[in-house]
Amino acid sequence: DGGITQSPKYLFRKEGQNVTLSCEQNLNHDAMYWYRQDPGQGLRLIYYSQIVNDFQKGDIAEGYSVSREKKESFPLTVTSAQKNPTAFYLCASRTGTNTGELFFGEGSRLTVL
Amino acid sequence: AQRVTQPEKLLSVFKGAPVELKCNYSYSGSPELFWYVQYSRQRLQLLLRHISRESIKGFTADLNKGETSFHLKKPFAQEEDSAMYYCALSGWETSGSRLTFGEGTQLTVNP
Fold it and tell me: Helix, strand or coil for residue B38?
């Protein structure tokens, strides 16, 4: 079954802890993305990666980190430096073209207690 | 820099009425514009892209470079059209694979 898989679906963490969200795709897509979805603010780009071992900051990268060691995987770490980490996080991928369709995962909801 | 603006956060219409969801953008090059839709309890998915010039589920969108707009239209709304709609822009010349979304418009079609 091809697509994008995000895990975990729900995650709770205490303040001061780092947490890593997983994103895996088997669509052979070059580009991968992390967005944060908040009510009334739409989707805001955190980081994106066009190829393996390369990634760029999006609009709200502060307090987040990523890696792209494999084409299929693009994990996101929410660090303790992120001031307001409670949110819904979406991972997506697409082919490396300007007109390519973006395929989304089901999302991960992070709650900081 | 690239930016997408959807001025209406909420839009409510009656079944059978025309609907227009507004999208304006700013980008210095030649953009690719998209509309994505998120139905209740489903993943965000592509609705249509301007390069295809197609009609999907009765929706159409025309890129107006003079007005920097890409409004989504449907002549007769249906209840199943109720969803969150996002306009998105991809600008290859300056941003590579970067894809920027607007704030979204929640459409409700009343019976």
Answer: strand
Which of the residues B21, B42, B94, B97 would you substitute to probe the A interface, choosing the one with the greatest number of A C-beta atoms within 10 Å? B97
B34: exposed, middle or buried (Cβ count in 10 Å: 0-12, 13-18, 19+): buried
The Cα–Cα gap between B2 and A84 comes to 25
Could you tell me which of B90, B85, B99, B77 has the C-alpha nearest to residue B21? B85
Q: Which amino acid is at B47?
A: L
Per-residue pLDDT tens digits for A17-76: 999 999 999 999 999 999 999 988 889 999 999 889 999 999 999 999 999 999 999 999
Q: What are phi and psi of A92, to 5 degrees?
A: -150, 165
Contact A47, A55 (CB under 8 A): yes
Contact indicator for B57, B39 with CB cutoff of 8 Å? no
CB contact under 8 A, A99 and B101: no
**How far is the alpha carbon of B70 from chain A, nearest alpha carbon, in Å?**
15
Separation of alpha carbons A74 and A47, rounded Å: 10
CB contact under 8 A, B101 and A41: no
pLDDT per residue as tens digits for the range B19-64? 999 999 998 888 889 999 999 989 999 999 887 778 889 999 988 9
Place of tokens 């088997």: A26
- Kindly tell me the burial class for residue A50, based on how many C-beta atoms sit within 10 Å of its own C-beta (0-12, 13-18, 19 or more): middle
